[in-house]
Design brief:
The chain is 41% helix and 19% strand. It has helices spanning 11-20, 39-49, 63-68, 70-94, 112-120, 135-148, 179-187, 206-219, 236-246, 284-294; strands at residues 2-6, 25-29, 53-56, 97-103, 156-162, 165-166, 192-196, 200-202, 204-205, 224-227, 230-231, 233-235, 252-256, 281-283.
Length: 295
């Protein structure tokens, strides 16, 4: 199959390329290859190769910049939002399957009562009504809506929501540093690290997500929204405890409220994604052990 991967040099995109390279004709594009906010250029270039599958791993993810800077918010709207409308139209024209990745943050704006109910039920399910908590989340929801608005135009699509991505360091210098890498770097500079303990979600290991994406496509399941994360809902602090326990590090970590840090964008207190459609992925602890051996 002819598979186009957008954002191919990022943490997720690089793993998707690795998984799909076997038995497929791969077109791996990143920002230097195409500007996904340029509708005319994007359409022209993709229509030439006529892909059967378009996997969009490109995204704007500077959460705080997006919140405090109007121009950054507009850029995020173009990359995370409007570009998906263009990609959906291209997919329809080429009769291609569109795979797009969204975020748990689209559930971060719910009231405490709704959050508590979701938490008691194991997380936010695929059909739970979104309620964005910040500008970044608004743009991610925009992307979903662009795709869903074309359902009646014979669009073939999978929207995959994930949370707290980590994985092997990609080629792209623009890729965001994962939480675990940040913790390891800080442990080399500080004797004590303050870690947020009042924000809970699930980690997603990029190699596991890439393989799960392939399995979803091959399964030919019903088009729609899917939640794919590794098992185990934890706070950042609990995850740091696991990390340094595995590393047998003596660095001190102190649990603190997220309000301690000056972050322009609000974060969800709980944004665990409940998977009701697919076989659950392994626990994040097992994935983390594998990752640390890779490092």
């Amino acid at each position: 199959m002819r598979v186009l991967i957008l954002g191919a040099k990022g943490t997720l995109g690089s793993q998707i390329k690795k998984v799909f390279s076997s038995n497929n004709q791969i077109f791996a594009w990143d920002s230097e290859n195409v500007d996904i906010t340029d509708k005319e250029a994007l359409s022209g270039k993709i229509n030439k190769i006529k892909p059967e599958i378009i996997i969009n791993a490109a995204a704007y993810n500077a959460v705080d910049k997006c919140e405090e800077n109007v121009n950054e918010f507009e850029l995020a709207k173009k990359i995370n939002g409007h570009a998906l409308g263009c990609l959906a139209d291209i997919a329809i024209k080429n009769k291609a399957l569109l795979v797009h990745y969204s975020s748990d943050y689209i559930f971060g704006g719910h009231t405490p009562a709704v959050v508590l109910e979701a938490k008691e039920n194991g997380g936010f399910s695929e059909n739970f009504a979104p309620c964005p908590c910040n500008n970044y989340a608004i743009t991610k929801l925009m992307g979903e809506q662009e795709i869903l608005s074309r359902k009646n135009k014979k669009l073939k699509y999978y929207i995959i929501r994930l949370s707290w991505l980590f994985g092997p360091k990609p080629a792209s210098k623009a890729s965001k540093q994962s939480f675990f890498d940040l913790m390891i770097d800080l442990s080399k500079k500080q004797e004590e690290i303050k870690v947020v303990d009042d924000e809970v979600s699930s980690f997603t290991y990029a190699p596991d997500l890439a393989l799960a994406t392939q399995n979803l496509i091959l399964s030919k399941k019903e088009f729609g929204i899917y939640h794919i994360t590794n098992s185990g809902q934890v706070s950042w602090f609990e995850a740091a405890q696991e990390l340094f326990g595995m590393l047998k590090s003596d660095v001190r970590i102190r649990p603190v409220s997220g309000n301690v840090f000056q972050r322009p964008a609000k974060r969800p207190s709980f944004s665990g994604l409940k998977n009701t459609k697919l076989k659950s992925l392994r626990n994040y602890k097992e994935a983390l052990r594998e990752y640390l051996k890779i490092k």
